[in-house]
């Protein structure tokens, strides 16, 4: 009985031991047959790169999570840095002397350009000016035979003769009234007729003036002088004939274009300014113009007009520079190089020209991290004028930043070799993951059998 009770009392211990063995076996089987993930490492030859941080000072890059831009960070070993011959330099401060350089076209000053049309209808009998000829103000340039002119002159001569006869009659009547041989009523009637005849004469005179006759020509009209049917077309001011349509025998009316006369003492140079540069130009800003025809001649003028409308396709607005042209060197239609001396924006950064690199469509420089030697931040910049061996930087870096003055090409080459892009150019970088990873080994999970 005692043996039986001992066996009976050990059953709970036996069951617990069995359950423990089963649990240990199941866990062992799980660890043996579970899939093994592929092992990956970050590329780390002589240089490694990760996305650059955003929002950090230009001199000391911050954590990657604080900057969302196109910048990347390239780290070089000490050996690679020495091999590349990297030389650091501090960004200096200078004055912003940047200007805009725009291609322009020489155009006529529209305020001093006149299209000549005849004042009367008729037929061109003589052309007195050739294409390209310089003319003076009032110089006859064409003659037109017009019956309208002859009729207007005849009316003027008739009105003058009638007025002269009526004045003599008025004088006789005034004398008769004085001696009582004529009535006062008759004298008043003659005075009224005299006023009407004066008005008719002035109307005829005004008509002749509208037809282009000068005061001297009108004064010479009268009895005994031949009435002319020829109207003269005269130059309105001194200039150059840039277009000639008139030829002898051409029938014309008051809307027919005969000549174009332009005063070339001043011309307009019209250029297109991009929308991003509008803040740097204003009416009255000085400008210089040079041409390939006269590379040594630097002409100076000022912006006289900025188009208030922006071209929807090119996102540009036309600016107009009025240029003096005393020697007629600027010819209409010439291409010109317009340099606008834009308003300075105070102090700007000045860096050596070799520090600048082009990556795609971006202009970049490489900033050095003083706390971590060999760590360089790629920073996009916008350049201004070139000042000898240096270049002004409008934005991107600040005076006092430490940049790579020599050897930046080696950093850029290492960046290209690694195929690095900005944070928005690849999905892993945008997600905050490693820029480039490559699998070193990928083991296929396999199950192990146990007997």
Describe this structure in words.
- The strands form seven sheets. The protein has a six-stranded antiparallel beta barrel. A five-stranded antiparallel beta sheet has the order 2-3-23-22-21.
- The protein has eight helices and 27 strands.
- By secondary structure, the chain is an alpha+beta fold.
- The protein has helices at residues 2-9, 11-33, 78-84, 147-179, 184-210, 215-219, 408-418, 427-430, and strands at 39-42, 47-51, 72-76, 87-90, 92-95, 100-108, 113-116, 122-127, 134-135, 140-145, 230-234, 239-244, 251-252, 259-262, 266-274, 286-290, 299-306, 316-324, 335-340, 347-352, 357-359, 362-368, 375-380, 382-387, 390-395, 402-406, 437-441.
- 26% of the residues lie in helices and 33% in strands.
- The protein is elongated and about 175 Å long.
Using only C-alpha atoms, the radius of gyration works out to 47 Å
Strand order of the main beta sheet, please? 6-15-18-17-16-19
**In DSSP terms, counting alpha (H) and pi (I) runs of 4 or more, how many helices?**
8
Q: Major β-sheet, in short? A: 6 strands, antiparallel, barrel
Q: Percent of residues in helical segments? A: 25-40%
**Overall 3D form:** elongated
Which stretches are low in confidence, meaning pLDDT under 50 for 5 or more residues running?
A: 1-9, 36-69, 423-451
Mean pLDDT over all positions: 78
User: Structural class, from secondary structure content?
Assistant: alpha+beta
Strand content: 25-35%
